[in-house]
Amino acid sequence: MKGSILVLAPHIDDGEFGCGGSIAKFIEEGADVFYAAFSVCELSLPSHLPKDILERELQEAAGVLGLSNENLRIFRYGVRTFASVRQKILDDLISLRREIKPDLILMPSPQDIHQDHRTIALEAIRAFKLISILGYELPWNNLAFNTQSFVFLKEQHLQKKIAALKCYQSQAHRMYANESFIRSLAITRGTQIGAELAEAFEVVRWIIQ
User: Cα–chain-centroid distance for residue 115?
Assistant: First the structure.
């Protein structure tokens, strides 16, 4: 995968969970990968943690994956409020499209039931309707997920994904922030396509020029 890739993360760390291995692989192969996070989730953090902790953890995780800080875009929408500012988010997505001119969008599945994730997915389809779009998998939010596209991973890519997620110490209590789960899912998706490891995606839009 070459060219320019834009990863849309409704909340900081969604991109790593959904496609961290693919991010590492694409960067290794020479793609220019950008990462846009739309909330730093201040209201979801325990009171004893600094309000910028997730932003700092993102910068550390990005370094592990090979993302440069110059390619990070951080917005500050309130968690669980995205639907009420849908138009502003669409405007930001259109601005990203004009600035980055991406060849591929990686975003949450349109079937994701989290209200913020769903808003990003629906507005991204509007903003990037002339660009190929893949929806990444977050099993704890997906009542259904169509495994229509796969990215082969090597062990080194999965290791980078796991290491990047370990940077999010503020989220370590999440049930899904578990190395065994992350590895098992990669093995499961790999088994579906005769590979050792993989990440799966839904095809939202695929354009061949």
Answer: 16
Q: Which residues of the chain have pLDDT under 70?
A: 1
CA distance 108 to 8: 7
Q: How far apart are CA 76 and CA 12, in angstroms?
A: 10
Give all strands (DSSP E) within the chain, no chain letters: 4-9, 32-37, 72-74, 104-108, 132-136, 149-153, 197-205
CA–CA distance, 150 with 173 (Å, rounded to integer): 29
3-state secondary structure of 203: strand
Residue spans of the domains in the chain: they are 4-205
User: Would the pTM of this model clear 0.85, i.e. be above it?
Assistant: yes
pLDDT in tens, 97-153: 999 999 999 999 999 999 999 999 999 999 999 999 999 999 999 999 999 999 999
CATH domain 4-205 topology: Rossmann fold (3.40.50)
Q: How many CB atoms lie within 10 A of CB 58?
A: 25
Identify the pLDDT of residue 1: 67
